[in-house]
Amino acid sequence: MKLSEILSPERINLDVKATTKDGVLKELVKLLKLSTPAQKNLIATLAAREELGSTGVGNGIAIPHCRSLVVSELVIVVGRSKKGINYQSMDRKRANLFFLIVAPPLGDPGRYLIALGKIAQVAGLICGDKRAKDIKQRKQFLDLVKELEE
Amino acid sequence: MNPQLQILIALQDILFMIREAKDPSQKKAMDKIGFKMDNLASLESTKSDLESQLSLPILSEYNRLKQRYGRIVAPVITGVCYGCFVKIPSAIHTSESRDATLHRCENCGMFLYWVET
To answer: How far apart (Å, rounded) are the C-alpha atoms in residues B93 and B103?
Structure first.
């Protein structure tokens, strides 16, 4: 599975403005262009997942995720915040790179877990890559993901 | 969207999450990636809160479907109920106000949600 084949430039936001966890979730979900009720449902499910345990995995990375009826296929959205936000991450550092992943409940559970694992791996590589901070174009970011996962 | 359908969708998402959090193999896989799933009490509380917002007849059907199938809402994709894979009558499927009404599959009885594709 290639993340760069699931991710598209329209689902990358390199200048997340939100300053709270809920705000980040809203800003990322908006990029999925769902109807207002579907967005509301998805944000509530993601917030419930955060209650179960923060998806801030440390090193400035958060990977909010859930399974939801409102999507028909596995989708990924990426966000980058310059200032970073308090995401209740395990290492207590602010998170500034967000990978949102949502899968339909009836989909292959293996594919969902593989995608989550790959995101965790690629997000770690992006964090350690000096070029990542200076990227201004969404397409450039996608190219970096492609390069790092090869 | 019908407000009761919106609650049922939220409940179904929560039910899946609770099931995953209770499944030892899923929990192990999530732990391995670095995700914690420890606060189950919070999910159970959200579930109870949502259940309390359902009307009594719908709550009764919700409990029946949950017990029988383990899920309550079936996604409809290209006119097919993904609970039982039977085609939905076109009069319902093509109706502009289909999400405003609470529809159920005539075959499996699950509540229907037209997924945006």
So the answer is: 10
Q: Which ipTM did the prediction report?
A: 0.90
Tokens at A47, concatenated: 């917030």
Query: In this complex, do B46 and A57 lie within 8 Å of one another by their Cβ atoms?
Result: no
Q: Test A53 with B39 for CB contact under 8 angstroms.
A: yes
When CB atoms are compared, the residue of B1, B6, B38 closest to A53 is: B38
What are the catalytic residues of A?
A: 65
Residue A49 lies in domain = 3-148
A6-38 per-position pLDDT tens digit? 999 999 999 999 999 999 999 999 999 999 999
Cα-Cα-Cα-Cα dihedral sign, residues A55, A56, A61, A64:
positive
Nearest to A48 among B17, B71, B77 (CB): B17
How many independent structural domains does chain A possess?
1
Closest residue of chain B to A91, computed from CA coordinates: B34
Q: Which residue of A has its CA nearest to B74?
A: A69
The token pair at B93 is: 């499927």
- Cβ-Cβ contacts under 8 Å between A and B: the total is 97
Domain B3-114, CATH number (from 3.20.20.70, 1.10.3720.10, 1.10.287.1490, 1.10.530.10): 1.10.287.1490
- Give the CATH number of the domain where residue A30 resides: 3.40.930.10
Asked if A25 reaches chain B (Cβ–Cβ under 8 Å), the answer is no
User: What pLDDT is attached to residue B117?
Assistant: 66
**CA atoms of A108 and A23, how far apart (whole Å):** 30
